[in-house]
Amino acid sequence: MKGGSRVDAGRPPRGSQAKAGRPHAALALPAVLFFAFFAIAPMVLAFYLSFTKWNGLGDPEPVGFANWQKLLTDDRLAQSLTVTVLLTVVSWVFQTVISLLLGVWAAGRQKNRAILSAIFFVPFLLSSTAISLLFYALLDPNFGIIRGDTLGSTNGAFLAIVFVGGWQFIPFHTLIYQGGARQIPEVLYQAAAIDGAGRVRQFFSITLPQLRNTVATSSVLMVVGSLTYFETVLILTQGGPGTDTAILPYLMYEAGFKSYDFGYASAIASFLVVAATLLSLLMVKLSGFGAMRSTREGM
Amino acid sequence: MESTTSNGGRTFSRRWVLGAGATTLLTAGLSACGSSGGSGSGGGTITAFVYGDDAVKVQVKAIDRFNASAAAKKAKGKIKLEKVPGAEYPAKLRTAMGSPNAPDVFFNWGGGSIKAYKDANQLIDLTDIIKSDSVLKDGFLPSVLAAGGLSGHNYGIPMRGMQPVILFYNKSLFAEHKLTPPTTWDQLLDINAKLKKAKITPFALGGADVWPELMWLEYLVDRIGGPQVFEKIKNGDASAWGDPAVLKAAETVKQLIDDGAFGKGFSSVAYTNGGAPAVFAKGKAAMHLMGSWEYSTQLGKFPDFAKKDLGWFAFPSIEGGAGDIRNVVGNPTNYWSVNARTSNKDAALAFLRECASEQYAKDLVANGDIPTTANAEKLLDASPNPEFAKFQYKMVQQAPAFTLSWDQAVDPNVSTPMLTEINKLFVGKSSPSQFVTALKGLK
C-alpha cells in the first residue's frame, strides 16, 4: 500500500479534467466581491474610524491615537476581556464535550438515530434572537418556568448565556463531529474488537485521535463564535447585572449605539478582529491542524 | 491569457482579484456620496419615525387623517409612518439620521436627545415658523413648547401627552389590606411593612431596563435635596453628584432593596417587554413608580385592571428633605422635529399643524393621555378616566419644578455610564458611596 509513486501522492486521478487545469479565477468573483463588500470593506472602515471621533452625524474628526489610548486604560475593557475569555473557555468545554459525544453517537447505525438527530438539529435553524427571547421568557422571575433571579445574579446570568449559546450551537458542532466520526474506517474498530478493546477504550484510542482535525475545526469555530457572541447578551442581560456579563462585542455596541462614540466602538471592534485572528492562528498552530497531516497516515 | 501552467494562471488571477476588490470599495464609496438627496419642497411622500408603543395609535390616526386632507394635497405629499419598536428607538434614529435614508419627521424627547442633531445642522429651526403661525403659536402650553427647544430656539412640536412620573397603586390590594395612599416617607415604609407581611411585593420594578430604576433616584434626589441638585448636574457640574442628597438617595435605595421592597427578581424583569406591568396588574406587586404612560400601557394590556383597580398618587415627601411634594420629574411630552434635508418641507410643516388640531388632542384624551395643547383642560371630561386626566393636568400645572428625566437631559455620552452605575447600585455591585464616587467621575 505504501509504495505508490511520489507524483501520485494525495492526488486522485482526474482523467480528462486534469488537462483542463483549475477552474478559471473569475468563477470565484461573486464570492470574492461578496466578501470584499461585506467583510473587508467594513473592517477597513472600522479601522479608519478608530482614529476618529464620530457620533454618527456629519464627518468623522481625526483624533490620532486617542481611542486606542482609552482602550488601554479603560477599566471596563479589562473586566470585559476577562468575562469574554471566561465565556469562551466555559462555552468551549460545555459545547465540545456534549457535541463530541452526541456526534459520535449520531455517526452510528442505531435505531431511531436519524429521527433523533434531525430533532437535535432544530435549535440551530432558529435565529439567535428568537432563541434568546424564548429563554428570556422562560427565565422570567414571575411568569417563567425557572423562577428565580437567574439573570439578576452574576453567576446565573453568566451560566444562562453559556447554556443558551450551547443550546443553539451544539447541534451544529454535533453535525461536524458526526461527519468526522463517519469517516473513521470501520476496520480500525474491527481490529480493536479482535484485540479485546471495549467501547470506552475504542473511543479514547481510536475515535478521539482520529477526530483530531475535526476537534480543531470545531474549536476554532466555537472560539471565534464566542468572541463575537452578541444577541444573546443583548437580549438576556444587556451586559448586566451591572457590567458583569458585558463581553467585548456588547461593550462595543454600548459605546457605539448607546453613547454614540463610534470612534471608540471601532477601536474595540478592531481590537476584537486582531485578537480573534491571532487566537485562531494560534489554535491552528498548536493543534497541528495547519500541517494538514492526515490522521490515516500509515494505513 | 488562458494559461495552462498553473503558476501563470495564479499570478493573473491574484492581480485581477485585487483590482476587483478595489473597484467594489470605490463603487460603495461613490454610491454613498451620490444618494444623499437635496432638500426642497418638490412634493412626494415623506417618512416619519415614531416610538412604537401602545400610544402610537393616535399618530396612526393623525397620519391617516392628514394624508386624506386638503393640506396634504396642497403640499403634494403624503406621510408614511414608520413605527420603531421601543428600546432601540434612539439607536435606530441615530443610524438613520447619519444615512441617506433619514426620516423627514421624527419623534424625540427634546433637550439632550436632539442636541447632537442640532449641532450637526440636521434640524429645521422652528422658532420663526411658530412665531408667524397662530395655529402653532397659540396651540400649545408655552412652557411645554419651550421645554422641547435648545438655548431659546424651538426645534419640536409637542405630539404626545404629558408624562410626569407617578406612583401608581392597586386600589383593590390597598382596600383589602386597609391601606391609604401615603404622603410621607414614613407612611410609605409602614405600608411596605404591611404588604410584605401579606406576602405582596410593595413595588413592581422593571430593573432590566434600568431607566425605571432611574425614576426612583430622580424623585428621591428631588425630595431630599430639591430640584436644584440635578439642575447643577445638568448644567455640566459633575461635582454636584457629590451633593449629600445624592448619597442619601442612594442609601435610601439600598435600604429599600435590602428590605425587599422591589421583590427578589426585579433585575430580571423588564418594563418594555410587559414584565413589570404584568407583575403590577396581576396583583403580585402593589405599587409601581412609572411615567403616566403606564395608564395607556395597562389599558392596552390589562384593560380591566386599568379601569377598575389602577390608582395613583404623588411621590411622598421625605421628612427633613428640601423638595416640595408637588415637584414633578418625568418628560414634559414628546416632540416631532423636522429633518433639515427633508424632500417636502411643506408637507412636514402642514403635518405639524395637524398635531395642534382639536381632533388630535381629542384622540390623545381618548387614549388616556393629557395633551399639552392650550385647549386641553376643557377636553379632559371626555377622557376614559377624567379623574386621572385631571389629576395629571393639575399635577403638572401646579408643579413648582418639573425636572426632565436625567437620561434625556444629559448627553448620551454621560447618560450611558450613568445608567450603568445606577444599575450597579440596584444590583448591589456598588455601595452608595462607590456610586457617588463613580458619578462624580462622569464628564
TrEMBL record, chain B:
Gene3D superfamilies: Periplasmic binding protein-like II
Alphabetical list of SUPFAM superfamilies matching this protein: Periplasmic binding protein-like II
One Pfam short name: SBP_bac_1
Taxonomy, superkingdom: Bacteria
Protein name (database record): Sugar-binding protein
Source organism of the structure: Streptomyces brasiliensis
